[in-house]
Amino acid sequence: MNRTLVWFRRDLRISDHEPLLRAAGRGLVVPVFVFDRALLHHPETGAARVAFLLAALHALDADLKALGGRLIVRSGDPVQVLPDLIKETDADGIYAYTDVERIYGRVRDARLNQALDRRGMKIRWFEPVASAADLIPYPQYRELWYREMGQPLVPTPQQVSVPPEIPSDPLPALDALGHWADEKPIPPASTAAARALLQGFLADKADRYYWQLSYPSAEATTGLSPHIKFGVISVRECVQTIRNTPDFGDNRVRRSHQQLISRLRWGNGFTQRFRYLPQLELRSLYRTFDDDGWAFDPDLYQAWQTGHTGFPIVDAAARCLQATGGYLALNFRTRAIYASFLSNLCGIDWRYGALHFMRHLIDGDCPIDHYQWAMQSGVTHCVDKTWTRIYNPGQTAVDRCDPEGEFIKRWLPELADVPPGQLGSPPTLSGYPAPILNYKAARQRRVKLLEAQRGKFLNARNLLPHLAQMPKDLTPFGTEVYGGEVAWAEDAIADLFPAALPLADLDVAQAAALRTWFVARVNVLPPKSRRRKPQVPATDPNIRQLTLLGDIK
Ligand SMILES: Cc1cc2nc3c(=O)[nH]c(=O)nc-3n(C[C@H](O)[C@H](O)[C@H](O)COP(=O)(O)OP(=O)(O)OC[C@H]3O[C@@H](n4cnc5c(N)ncnc54)[C@H](O)[C@@H]3O)c2cc1C
C-alpha cells in the first residue's frame, strides 16, 4: 500500500488541508512534526509562542487520533530527519505546504530538496491558499485572494491510517525544548477553540468590531491571531464562516464582517510580500533607510522595553506585552503607537523593536510583525507622506485609544488616581518616571531625517536600484544579543525555496508590478496634498472610531 509522509509545519489542522487529504486518499499516512532546533532557538523565538505551539500539537494529535491516526513526533534537522524517516517507513515521499515565513525555513527547504534529490526521494510541495508563485500586481493578487477564499474548503479525510509500527517521540514539555514559561497565560490552542472564538465573535462582537477594534479595553477583536499564525484554522474557513453568518441587514454587522475579512487579507498580503522579498525579514524595503544607520541608545531601549518612558500609553503597552504576550490585550492601534515610539521618537532601529515583539508575542508572525514595524517606522514608503506614522504619545493617543484610562490603569496601577484627562502627561508622582524625551523635538528630528532620506530617490524613474537586496550574511538580527542556533547561516546558500524575486533580472513591467505591492500608485511623483476623509459616524454615539491618520501633520 502507498505510504506518504505529511510534514506539518505552520498548518496544524486536519481540515482544509490539501496535503493531508491527498495523502490519506492514496493510502497510509505518516503525519510528522519535527522539532527543529534552528527554529526553537532562533533569536526571535519566544517561550509563550512555543507553549502555544505545543498545545496546538497536542490538539492536532487528538484530531488525528479521532480519524484513526496519530502524530509522529521527531526532533533534529529536518534535512536529515525527513529522508531518514522516508527510509525507515518505506514511504514514497513527502507532501507539505510551502512556507515563506522566514529565510531560515527557505534555506532549509532548499537544502531538503537537494538532500532528497541526492537520495532519489520525492517531495511534493502544495501552494497554500491565496499564495501566488509568480509576480503579479497587487490588484490582481487581491482578486486572486477573494477568488480562492470562495473556493470550497478541502474536506477533512474520513480516516487517516498510520502504519502501527512507526515509533514516535512523546510530545515534550516546554522546558525540555529549552524554554521556560514566563507566566504569560496561554490561550486554548485547537481548531475547536479557534472555531469557538470565531463563533463567539460573530455572536457578541460583530456589531461593534468596526468601531471599537482600536480601543484595547474594549477587547473587540477575535483573538484568532495565534491560531492563524500556526494554521490551526485556515483563513479560508474563517472567511467562509464570516460570509455564511447573516448580518440581518444590520449595517454595523456588515461593516464589521467586511473589516475582519479585509484584515485577514492584509495578513496574507504581508506573507506574499515576504515570498517576493524575503530580505524584508532583515532589511528595510529601501536601502537608504538602513545605509544611513540608526541610533541606538541602550537606556532608551530599556525604558521602552520595560515600560518606564514616562508616557503612560507607551508604558502600559510595554507591560501588557510582557505580561500577556499581546494576546487580545494588545490590539493593532496600541501596538502601532508603541512601535512608532521606539523607531520614530527614540530613533532606534525598528529591527530592535520587531525583535522584542517577536520574543514576546504569542501571535508573533515574522511577515506581519516585521512589515508592520517597518511601516510604522516610515521605511516602506518613499513618496507618500501619509506613511509617516508618528503618533503623539501624550493626551492625543490616550483620548483616541483609551479615553477612560482603563487600559493604562490596568497596567500602571501607580496611576490609579490620575484622572483620564491627565494620563497623557501625568503630574509628577513618586514611582512613575518623567518623560524620557521631548515629543515635539523628537518628532521634528524624525520628520527631517525621513524627508532627507526619501528625497534621495523621490524623482527616481526606476526604484529597483533603491530596493534592499538579499544580504550575503543571513544571520538573524538579534543573534549578537540572544545567541541562537544559527550555524545554518554561516555557509548559507544563495538558493531559497521558494526562490526570492531576482531583482536584478526584472524588466520594466515587472518592476511596475512589484511597486504596486508597496504603494498605491505606480508613478513616483510626490502626491498632491489630499483631503482627509471625514470620520465615519458611528451608529452608537458613544462609540467613536479611531481615525487612522489623526495626528499626521
Ligand atoms: C508593530 C505591529 C506588529 C504586529 N505584529 C503582529 C504579529 O506578529 N502577528 C499578528 O498576527 N499580527 C500582528 N500585528 C497586527 C495586529 O495587531 C494583530 O493581528 C491583531 O492585534 C491580532 O488580534 P486579533 O486576532 O484579535 O485581531 P482581529 O482584528 O480579530 O484580526 C483577525 C486576524 O486578521 C489579521 N490581522 C488583523 N489586523 C491585522 C493587521 N493590521 N495587519 C495584518 N494582519 C492583521 C490577523 O491574522 C488577525 O489574527 C501587528 C501590528 C503592529 C502595529
Q: Could you write a compact summary of the structure shown?
A:
InterPro entries: Crypto/Photolyase_FAD-like_sf (IPR036134), Crypto/Photolyase_N_sf (IPR036155), Cryptochr/Photolyase_FAD-bd (IPR005101), Cryptochrome/DNA_photolyase_1 (IPR002081), DNA_photolyase_N (IPR006050), Rossmann-like_a/b/a_fold (IPR014729). Helix content is 43%, strand content 5%.
- Using the CA coordinates, give the radius of gyration: 24 Å
- The count of DSSP E runs of length 2 or more, i.e. the number of strands, is 5
Helix amount, in percent? 40-55%
Largest sheet: 5 strands, parallel
Overall geometric form? globular
Bound ions, cofactors and other small molecules, one mention each: flavin-adenine dinucleotide
In total, how many domains does the architecture comprise? 3
User: What do we call the CATH topology of the largest domain?
Assistant: DNA Cyclobutane Dipyrimidine Photolyase, subunit A, domain 3
What is the correct CATH architecture of the largest domain?
Orthogonal Bundle
Overall SS class: mainly alpha
- The CATH homologous superfamily of the largest domain corresponds to DNA Cyclobutane Dipyrimidine Photolyase, subunit A, domain 3
Separation of the first and last Cα atoms: 67 Å
| pLDDT averaged over residues | 92
GO molecular function: deoxyribodipyrimidine photo-lyase activity; oxidoreductase activity
EC number: 4.1.99.3
Protein name: Deoxyribodipyrimidine photo-lyase
Enzyme class: lyase
